[in-house]
Structures are given as structure tokens and as C-alpha cells.
Amino acid sequence: MRPSDEAKLALFIDFDNIALGARDAGQKLRIDLLLQRLLEKGKLVVKRAYADWSHYPDFVGDLHEAAIELIEIPAARRSGKNSADIRLAIDAIELCHAKEHIDTFVIVSGDSDFSPLVSKLRENDKAVIGMGMRNSSAHLLIANCDEYIFYDDLAQERRAAAAAPLEAVPENKRQVFDFLLGTIRALLREGRDTLYSSLIKDTMKRKRPDFDESRSGYATFGDLLEDAQGHGLIEVTRDEKASRTWVVKGIATRSRRGKSTRPPAPVAEASAAAVKPPRERPPARSRRGTEGRARRRPRRPAAPPEA
């Protein structure tokens, strides 16, 4: 995938809604899970979160680390009710007209008040992805988005991945293989038909800009894919029509995970070559006794010559 083909995403977070929804659901809100899922879809070019940040001091550090712009909204008693929602909607519409290269807007909220905003963005040929908690997301908003992601599912997927470690894989390769498998699963979930190696690596670089396969001992990304196939983790092939580019066909079944797919040496042939066949003994000569031999008659002495 060329960089120009990547989706350009603008992220707008109604932090009050998502934080309170996570609290009511008994879940810990992790910003990294939210961002990692969105980076699988494209490049995040705008990231803004709206709240009275004096209420969320524990999240400010993580948001700053993720390079999310914090928009301060004073308390409702001073700024009025729904001030954060209004400011978010105005900024989104303004960005929609000012930045034509942004083709996807992400609204992190379950509030039905954002439904008119979603409709207006779609009128301007923008895709809209919603994200929120399952217990606090309005059906009206969910139905109006092009796609809606429940944060609950992200947390569940994370726990499922952690519960299935690659025990049969060498310990020094588990981290890079886990990252690779997670990225491939995400692309398959997004409906990608052909997973070229360049697409997989670009996605991994978006999620972790410092990713470099050479740090794990691989000269090329193709070597990493080939080794993952050798451990029975994925199925890969080469596209003869695209300069023999590596193409991932899918994730290997769990029963094959961690097992080498390299064909074993033919045991029968090796053993046959190692063991020499017994030498054939020449047929035994018949040992006949003297009794069985025909006795030669004694030769008569020659007659003396006549005088």
C-alpha cells in the first residue's frame, strides 16, 4: 500500500462519555487500545479530546504521551450544558471543510446528540466511525455511523490474545511474532483480500513507528514472514505476477502453531543408505569325494623298438 492510499483519520473524543461509560461498566479505560485499533484502519492526522481535565488528572499523562490535543472545557456551571459537545461538533465541521485530505472522522462517544454531526459529515462525503461503551451508546448514533466499534470488544480481544501465548516459539521471538500475528488478524478483520508484505509492514509501522525487523535478527521483512511460516504460525506464498512479493494467505490453525512446517528428512531412505546390504556369497562349489571321480586308467608303457 502506498502512503497516498492510506485512510486519513481525524479523532474527536467526548472524554466525559467514554470515561464515565467505562467506569459504569467496571472497565479500565486504556487509550492505547483505542488508538491501536484506529491505526489499523489508517493514519491518524488529528487527535483531540474534550473535557474539564481537572476531573481526570489520572488520564492526562497518557493522553499527552499519545500526542492527543486536550481541549479544556470549563465546568458546566460556568460554560453551560453540553459545551463540550458543541465545541467538538464545531471543530469537526470546520475541519471537514478546511482539510479535504481527511476522509474519515472518528467520534468517540455514545451520545445520540452527535447524530446530526454524523449526518452532516456523511453529506460531505466523509466516512464516520463511532466508538463507545456498549452500555452507554445510543442506538440512533450507532445506526447513523458507517461503522461502530465497542470498546468492550477491544478489551476482550486484548485479554484473549494475552491468554494464548506462543509457548512453542522461542522466547526471543515471541514478541515480534505476537505483534505480527495481531496485525495480520486486524487486516483480515478489516476485510483485506490480499495481504502483501508491504501492507503488513506499513500497518505495523503505523502502530509502532520504531518497528524494525532487523532488531529481531532478520535481514528483511520477508525473512520474518518466512520464519513465522517455518514455526507454523502463518501461511505465506509469493506472487509471481508482482515480482515474487510475499503474500500472507492467513493464520495457521492453532494445532500447527509453534510446530515447524519444514519437511522432515526421509527416514526410510536415510536408513537404507546408511545400512549396506549384505554381500552376496558366491555359490558353494560342489565338494565331491574321490569316490565320485572317475578313475583314470594307468597308461601302458610304450613298447621297446624292434631290433
Secondary structure elements and pairings:
Blueprint: E1 7-14, H1 15-24, H2 31-39, E2 42-51, H3 57-65, E3 69-72, H4 76-79, H5 83-98, E4 104-108, H6 115-123, E5 127-132, H7 139-144, E6 147-150, H8 151-162, H9 171-189, E7 195-196, H10 197-207, H11 221-230, E8 234-239, E9 245-251, H12 267-274
Parallel strand pairs: 1-2, 1-4, 2-3, 4-5, 5-6
Antiparallel strand pairs: 7-9, 8-9
What does it look like?
Residues 267-276 have a biased composition (Low complexity). Residues 277-293 have a biased composition (Basic and acidic residues). This is NYN domain-containing protein. Residues 253-307 are annotated as: Disordered. One of its GO terms (molecular function) is RNA nuclease activity. By secondary structure, this protein is α/β, with parallel strands linked by helices. It folds into two domains: 3-158, 5'-nuclease (Rossmann fold), CATH 3.40.50.1010; 164-256, 2-Layer Sandwich (Nucleotidyltransferase, domain 5). The chain is built from twelve helices and nine strands. It has helices at residues 15-24, 31-39, 57-65, 76-79, 83-98, 115-123, 139-144, 151-162, 171-189, 197-207, 221-230, 267-274, and strands spanning 7-14, 42-51, 69-72, 104-108, 127-132, 147-150, 195-196, 234-239, 245-251. The strands form two sheets. The chain has a six-stranded parallel sheet, sandwiched between helices. Strand 4, helix 6 (115-123) and strand 5 form a beta-alpha-beta unit. The longest helix has 19 residues, at 171-189. It is globular and about 60 Å long. 24% of the residues are buried. Mean pLDDT is 82; it is low at 263-275 and 289-294.
